[in-house]
Each structure stands twice: as C-alpha cells, then as structure tokens.
Amino acid sequence: MADEVLSQNEIDSLLSSISSGEMDAEELKQEEKEQKVRVYDFKRALRFSKDQIRSLTQIHENYARLLTTYFSAQLRTHVDISVASVDQVPYEEFIRSVPKMTILNIYSARPLDGRVLMEVSPHVAYGMLDRVLGGKGCSINKIENLTEIETMLMSQLFEKAAVNLREAWSSISEIDPVLEEFEVNPQFLQMVSPNETVIVVSLNTTIGETSGMINICIPHFVLEPIIPNLTVHHRMQTTAKERDPEAYEKLTNNIQLANVDAKVLLGETTINLQQLLSLDSDDVIALHQSIEDPLLMEVNDRPKFYVQPGTHKNKLSVQVLKEWKRGDENE
C-alpha cells in the first residue's frame, strides 16, 4: 500500500499541534509500533474461497435447471427454480433459520462421507403434492398430520430428484446420492456439530401459483475430499475432456439418420368462402406464383432452399438451386 502524502497545510497544522502540546510525539510513535488487529469470529470461520463458492454456484445453477425440467415433467405445470444465494455459515445458524415444521430430505452422497440436507418450504412441498394428486397446485399447511400415503408420495418425488443431483455434480465428482431419511422436524436432526461450517444453497422456487424456497445444506467435511476440484482450472480441464471423439462421431452419425419433414410449396392464393363453395371440376385457381420463379422448399415447416420442379425416374422431383437466407422474403 502506498504511503499517504500530506499537504502543506496538514503538515503545518501537525507541527503546530506538537508545538502547542495538544499532541505528543511519543504517543504517535507508540501508536505506530502497536500491531493493528482485526476482529475474527471463529464461529463463522470462512473455509471456502471465493473461487470455490463460485464453482458451487455454477454447479447448483445447473442443478436448478435440471430440477426445473424434472418437476415440470412430473407435475405438468409451470415450474421455475433458480439460485438465490450460496453462503457459508455455521450449521447452528442454518438450523435456527429453518421453520419448526418443514420438509427435510436427507441424502447420502457416496463415496463422500456424511449427508446432504434438502429443506423444502411447506408451501412448495404441498403445492407439489396437490399437483401429484390431480389438484391445481394449491398450498395447504397440514405438515403436522401428514398421512402415510402423502409421506410416501412426497418422499418418492424427491427420491427420484437425486438423479439430477448426480448429473449436476458429475463435472466435479462422481457421487451416488440416495434419499435416506424424510423428516419434518429439524429439532430431531443433528447432522454435524453446531459450529461446523456448511454451504447453504438457496433456490427460489415457483410451482404454478405457489412460491417458496428450497435450501440445500452441505457440511464442509462432505466437500473436503473434493475441494481441490472446485477451481476454474479443474472445470476447464473437465470441459475439455468431456468430448469423447468416438462418442461425438457416433452422435453425429445418429443425428444424420434422423428423419425430417421436407415439402415444397407450389404457390398460394386467397379466395373467399363463396368462391370456395362455387368450385367445380375443371375450374382453375390462379396462384401468386410465376412459373418462371423458383419454388420454396420447407424443412420441418421452416424455409430452407429454393428449388425448381421436374421429374426423376418417372417421379415428381425438385432440384435445389440455392439456400434460402433470412431477408429473402423482403425481396
């Protein structure tokens, strides 16, 4: 850090204060010798760097997209899930922020030690349950008296969501998450010691007209074996290795064999209903298409080529003249 430069007026004022006795030069020297200290709260020990937090954020942004697709298919309604925040806090602080009665899903993540907690807002959980049972997705707060059927349906919904967690983490580590417990009271849950640092990922969740939060709690010791993987360098290396040349070629060949719908428009015109009802055999309908102009070929209902009609092996055919480009319709 560069030394601060005093102005001439500040120097004169300082000398005047020392001369008049308002300021003691010895006290100034003593203050310089004293070591400056910064308050550090050991209960909120920061054990993850900014780069590691950024990696965890990207992982769970991908997870949020996967969950959105999964729940949209399962519930057949509008679902929007996005990352609101990623923080590191003591486990005790996280548990205090959780409602007294809520939906708690506890996952193992082998081969990693420990467990991962997913806390789902009752509004969101019951909105999901209502959709599964054929409702509109309304939220009803009856968490204290869940029936066995409701508990089973809700746990099955989140058990299948573990596949998305595995896919989201695949770029960092191969894990096999399994739903082990389904709980509603956080007081009965003691995953780690109160002062253990945990990562809390908060997801904004909207199910139909119901909205709430999904919080994912990951203890530090669960992530400790793979912390070296939570770096930009590792992510770049992983991305470079993800493209398997053999798999890429196979995928390309399979895509090339996919069927597409191709059709050629001979022309079009506009007639009124009276003219349509008056049509008879041998009537002629004039199209807005000159016989000298090329025809437009559409692929999956999108313009692709200009073609000219003809025959090939006694079949009606078209010959491609040139590719259609955006803006040609204005010519």
UniProtKB/TrEMBL annotation:
InterPro entries linked: CheC-like_sf, Flag_FliM, FliN-like_C, SpoA-like_sf
Signal peptide: none
Principal subcellular localization: other
Domain of life according to the entry: Bacteria
Keywords from the UniProt entry: Bacterial flagellum, Cell membrane, Cell projection, Chemotaxis, Cilium, Flagellar rotation, Flagellum, Membrane
Bilayer topology annotation: Peripheral membrane protein
Domain Flagellar motor switch protein FliN-like C-terminal: 255-322
Subcellular location: Bacterial flagellum basal body; Cell membrane
Family to which the UniProt record says this protein belongs: Belongs to the FliM family.
Descriptive protein name: Flagellar motor switch protein FliM
Organism: Lentibacillus juripiscarius
